[in-house]
Design a protein that fits this description.
single chain; alpha/beta; six-stranded parallel beta sheet; binds thiamine diphosphate
Length: 546
Amino acid sequence: MTRIKVHAALACALADHGVDTLFGLAGDANLFFIDYFIREKAGTYVAAAHEAGAVLMAGGFASVSGRVGVATVTHGPALTNTVTALAENVRSRTPLVLIAGDTPSAEKENLQDIDQQPVVAPTGAGFEPVRSPETIADDLAVATRRALTERRPVVLNVPVQYQWADIDYRPAALRVAGPQALAPDPKVLDQAMGILAYAKRPIVLAGRGATAPGAREALLHLAERIGAPVATTLKARDLFRGDPYDLGIFGNLSHQVASEAIEQSDCVIAFGASLNKWTTMSGTLLAGKKVIHCDTDPAALGRLSPFDVAVLGDARTVAETILAWLDEAAIAPSSFRSERLGQELAGYRPAFRDHGTAGTVDLRALLLRLEQEVPRDRVLVTDGGQYIFDTLRLLHVENPSSYVHTVNFGSIGLGMGSAIGASFAAPGRPVLLITGDGGFTLGGLTEFNTAVRHGIDLIVVVCNNHCYGPEYVHFESRNMSPALSLFDWPDFAPVAQALGGTGLTVRNARDLDLLPEAIARRDGPLLIDAKLDPARVEPEREPRTR
Ligand SMILES: Cc1ncc(C[n+]2csc(CCOP(=O)(O)OP(=O)(O)O)c2C)c(N)n1
């Protein structure tokens, strides 16, 4: 037990929980604690330019590392600036603690006073007030435990007047149960076996809830055993990369060969997937098929989509148990993993018509070149906009945790903060951020220099059609002038240079040949301003190859 100030105790408590990286923006109510964390605890502190950036960074860090992300802001407008970022992280189910200072409770006319709990409530984040100076370590432990077990951001509200109070510091234990196997009920599994035994064309589908260690191998064994191709949701993208029967994404982003296989299938066994409207294409992809839905969360089973059998259990244990039962009952595999399907998958190449002109590059040509040129161990972060559909189809990662999805709240402009945070969870690996010009000007510009200051290996690709894509399409579809959606931005490459990074402008297909050298020679944030045609913003269906 040591006698220290509350701000020091907060820094010690963070370090005692293994937190080594803190994202924030300093003000009256958190500056001494940040200073102590850096000086006395050798913590890494990332100073964001906007509070939204700080929270997004903590979210990106948590998403890639699998650890709790921690951010800090001061009171009043600093907290209101985080609302969208909190809502995003609630919807992505990211464990995150936001340490927010609060104005002195005794002070009547503090300009920055605002009732914090009602500010946070509609975002869906949790709220934990620090009860007294003496309980600060315990209250942080409660907030952290809640963030990890409830899988959402929790705001820890720290009254500013506590900062310099002396307390007896004692580390508080973080009581969080580790991951564990959850075995299925044999009676329920028996029903699932009844379906699998008769399935002629089953598919094994994995969501982000099926990406725990060991799950991939168990699901692939199961798939092989029942003769099923494998597929994932968007958020579990590339989990089965390398398997010859990997269909890729199941849903509205499926490629042509996968779509055909999904259409023919008569049974889907889904693990850790919510079966939302994008995965099921509003239910149409599961219609007429038998559905076995497996998840560790009883509330997830059947929440968004009907099932024939709902199995409570973790992906690995359920898959391994089914495998053992299949062998015991000597059930033969289906023939859906046919040689023909394997050949079609091996031979599949994305097909598209190149709409590039002398002054614009085709989005798909750009993305396919990036797929080739950006090192494979990249982390991929997408902002929001029309370009996202092609981006998610054509760019790949080595495993699902290397992909950060930032449009869970449908907001543009959240990619840059998330990308910076992700980089701190993936040292030595490049982070590739794909953003629109609207998203970049809304949220990316603000933090580009933060990436420069911290020497981050970041490649920002601005899909610059100098317009708000969906708004352009709305106007055009009603034969109205799209003028309101068009923007005469400055070139972004010199802007990136002025902010301390490097910039490259890609004006047409020929300029794509500049990418390899620019990417190879990068030594800090690199921005690629790719000029696209606003009239070509809508994703096209893949032309049929057969
Ligand atoms: C915070 C926020 N403000 C406004 C919108 C509405 N909106 C949706 S897409 C979009 C424009 C996106 O433009 P850009 O980033 O250039 O990508 P594009 O669609 O043109 O490819 C806007 C303004 C939004 N989704 N989020």
